[in-house]
Every structure is written in structure tokens, then in C-alpha cells.
């Protein structure tokens, strides 16, 4: 954690026992006058898959991006509140944002491999973060294996990543994130551009990743949320309406709005 902040010290024992890894406290996010996320309080538990669902424009991606400060890149965006990651408020000025995005990695809706070889896609971040070159080969194999892509690409590591299929490219992007050894992986509709077979692979991968990482995934696909996630948070109109174990949220939600959404009555 010392890489994330120059001020705060983390109590290791608490870290190991606390089920809550990340806690959004009174998060408000604005784009200029548009109040996109309103008074949001949400805990993310260690080693869970938390799905964020809700109608288009309800603030899911905006919230997801605030976790690793991707909204900093949007000039009109303003975030208030605390994003507590163990003992550190990720929104504070003294957080090292580069280290933060290594620890809390993100994969986007549209696979975005660099126009380089498969190998170079993975080593790009390692070079940037100063990982010694002699470790690269092992990290490349390990990350591609974890992303369930190794067998498909091991004989073509020096081919262009752009020659991979869409589903393979998305798993490459996940591998690229894993290469940096994150704690948390943020996935923004990672399978929405994929066919059912590639989607199933990404879903299997998510469940596999949970053993080692904490995953927060935005999805429009309610079947996907119910297949992969442990808990689901339902957003509506910038507000978090409810968070519950996935099975409960889809069978017996606490709120009428959730019920209406999951039964297809709006959104
Ligand atoms: N880069 C941006 N600049 C300005 N406004 C934005 C930006 N991104 C999102 N918004 C606005 O913030 C609100 C929430 O959008 P967001 O993309 O977070 O919703 P979402 O629930 O993820 O939607 P979708 O499911 O369609 O991706 C919307 O009103 C949207 O227009």
C-alpha cells in the first residue's frame, strides 16, 4: 500500500481479516451540472464478484471508473466522498494514481489491445512499471494462462494482437491487467461485444479469477449477472437502489424498482 500513498499506514492484520476491501462512502459524481451518481454508499467484499446492473445512463460505468480514478481523465467530471480501500481514501490528492491503476485494474467494453504483438501487449505495462526484464517471460505465460488464453496463443506470441478474434482480444486485455498483479479487477461490460461462446469463456474466467482477485463488473446482461456474481447492486437514475446476494436480488428483491427492472417492466 505504501506505493499508493505517502501518508497512510495500513494495519496488515485488519487487512487480512476484514471482508470489506473497498467502501464507497457518500460518493457523488458530476459531469458539469449533470449529477450522475448520487450519495452512493457501497461495500465491495474481498474475493467476491459484485455485479452492477441498471438501465442505460444510470451511472454504473461512472461509478466503476471512479474506483480507480479513471474519471480524472474526463475534464468535466467531479467526484466527492470517500473511496476507502482498506485504510486509504483513493480520492485523496496524495494517492499515486499510476500505482492505484496497477492495483485496481480495468478492462473496458471494447477490447483495446495495443497494435503490437501479443507478447508486447503484456510486457508494455511491465516495462512501464519497471519490472525486471528477466521476469517478463514467466509473467507473460502466467497471465495468459490465468486468462485462459495461453493454449490458443503460445505458438504465436509474436504475432499482432490485432489478428486475434474479439473474444481472444478481450481475454488478452484481461491478461494484460493480470500481468500487473492487481488486487481488484474492474470490468465494464467485458462481454457485451462478444458472441455466446466467447461470452461463456469470459464468464468462466471471471469465476476463476474470483479465487484470487476481487471483481466488480458492470453488465447489461442480467443472466450474466446471475450466472457469475455473488452480489448484485441495482442502480437507477444515479442512485444505488439495493445491493443483495445475487440470488435474492433476482428472486425476491427488496425494492419495487428492482423488481420492475428485473422483470423487464422498464429499462
Ligand atoms: N464522459 C462523459 N462526459 C459527460 N457525461 C457523461 C460521460 N459519461 C457518462 N456521462 C453521463 O453520466 C450519466 C451516467 O452515465 P453512465 O455511462 O455512467 O451510465 P451507465 O449506467 O454505465 O450506462 P450504460 O449502461 O448505457 O453504459 C449519463 O447521464 C451520461 O450521459
From TrEMBL:
<dbReference type="GO" id="GO:0005524">
    <property type="term" value="F:ATP binding"/>
</dbReference>
<protein>
    <submittedName>
        <fullName>Phosphate ABC transporter ATP-binding protein PstB</fullName>
    </submittedName>
</protein>
<dbReference type="InterPro" id="IPR027417">
    <property type="entry name" value="P-loop_NTPase"/>
</dbReference>
<dbReference type="InterPro" id="IPR017871">
    <property type="entry name" value="ABC_transporter-like_CS"/>
</dbReference>
<dbReference type="InterPro" id="IPR005670">
    <property type="entry name" value="PstB-like"/>
</dbReference>
<dbReference type="InterPro" id="IPR003593">
    <property type="entry name" value="AAA+_ATPase"/>
</dbReference>
<dbReference type="InterPro" id="IPR003439">
    <property type="entry name" value="ABC_transporter-like_ATP-bd"/>
</dbReference>
<keyword id="KW-0547">Nucleotide-binding</keyword>
<dbReference type="Pfam" id="PF00005">
    <property type="entry name" value="ABC_tran"/>
</dbReference>
<feature type="domain" description="ABC transporter">
    <location>
        <begin position="22"/>
        <end position="262"/>
    </location>
</feature>
<keyword id="KW-0813">Transport</keyword>
<keyword id="KW-0067">ATP-binding</keyword>
